[in-house]
Amino acid sequence: MTISRLSLKALAIAVVVAALATAALLLARPQPIESAVLGTDWECTQTAFVLTTCAPRVQQAIPAAETSRKEAIRPTRG
After folding, report:
1. What is the per-residue pLDDT for 25?
2. pLDDT-based confidence at residue 14 (cuts at 50, 70, 90)
3. In the chain, how many domains are there?
4. Is 77 inside any structural domain?
5. Is residue 38 included in any domain, yes or no?
6. How far apart, in whole angstroms, are the C-alpha atoms of residue 52 and residue 45?
7. Is 60 domain-assigned?
8. What's the predicted TM-score (pTM) here?
9. What integer is the mean pLDDT of 30-58?
């Protein structure tokens, strides 16, 4: 089975396009960065070395079931 030059060229172009798309996705993935200006209460990410976004850090919430359980359990007299 012979493969024509056109199909080899098309295969090479497809491989290059796939490699470039993979590189673009890796670079565009948001990376966490530290912001000394905003402090530790903020979480910042930088996408593709261009776009930087910051949002307040989410505090760890205690589930409502856990807090109501602690209030419901009272020490018993032994």
Report:
1. 80
2. very high
3. 1
4. no
5. yes
6. 6
7. yes
8. 0.42
9. 80
At 76, list the tokens.
Answer: 């018993």
Contact 59, 41 (CB under 8 A): no
Q: Would you say the C-alpha torsion 20, 26, 27, 29 has a positive or negative sign?
A: positive
Q: Are 38 and 55 in contact (CB under 8 A)?
A: no
- Given pLDDT bands bounded at 50, 70 and 90, which one contains residue 65? low
The whole domain housing 53 covers: 5-72
Which residue from 64, 41, 73, 70 is spatially nearest to 54, judged by alpha carbons? 41
Residue 25 forms part of a structural domain: yes
How many other C-beta atoms are found inside a 10 Å radius of the C-beta of residue 26? 9
Tally the residues of the chain: 78
Compute the distance between CA of residue 33 and CA of residue 43 in angstroms, rounded to an integer: 8
Which residues touch 30 (CB under 8 Å, ≥6 apart)? Answer: 45, 46, 47, 53
